[in-house]
Amino acid sequence: MSLNPVHIKRIASKEARDDLMNYVLEQDMLSEFIEFLSSNDERLRAKCCWVLQQITDDYPKALLPFSDTLIHLLPNYTSDAEKRFVMRYFNFQPLPKDENELTQLMNFGFDWLIDPKEAIAQRAFAMTTLFRISDVIPEIKHELALTIEAQREFGSSGFKNRAKHILKKLNAEL
User: Helix, strand or coil for residue 28?
Assistant: First the structure.
């Protein structure tokens, strides 16, 4: 097996995804694998995010050295898979320490949260990431509460439930 982009784009089963994940980790090729997120090929980037999400789930600390790369690539993310992956990643992993990176993550989070064309999953993950950011940048709490309130009625039941819980926490802090 190799890190062949054609092979990666053809991955269709969880078993194939897990085989690639194990190969990347066993061969210590995570850095090379993450470079595919810079590709112009949206399908390749989306499949890589699927593998990276599983790596994050199974080995939560594995991607920590690459958090800044995930932030710097935010402008490249165009597919639901990429946006969902990066916002879900920052729901559970440490937020960037660098102020510029944190601001960039916050700006993309707000953009995706307010865009009704975005899939519900990345909007919900953005909501949680923004709530976590509000602990670091408390000045956004009021804006976040207003934004969530405005978006709540347009979401799925899961989105509405998450919004309700985050709004409850935000209102307690405001």
Answer: coil
Sign of the CA dihedral 69, 75, 79, 81?
A: positive
Other C-beta atoms lying within 10 Å of the C-beta of residue 51: 22
Specify the higher pLDDT residue, 31 or 153: 31
User: CA 8 to CA 4: how far, in whole Å?
Assistant: 6
How high is the pLDDT of residue 1? 64
Q: How far apart, in whole angstroms, are the C-alpha atoms of residue 154 and residue 116?
A: 8
**Mean pLDDT on 13-20:** 97
Cβ-contact 116, 157 below 8 angstroms: no
pLDDT reported for residue 154: 79
> Rounded to whole angstroms, how far apart are CA atoms 117 and 111?
11
d(CA 174, CA 165) in angstroms, rounded, equals 14
C-beta separation of 56 from 87 below 8 A: no
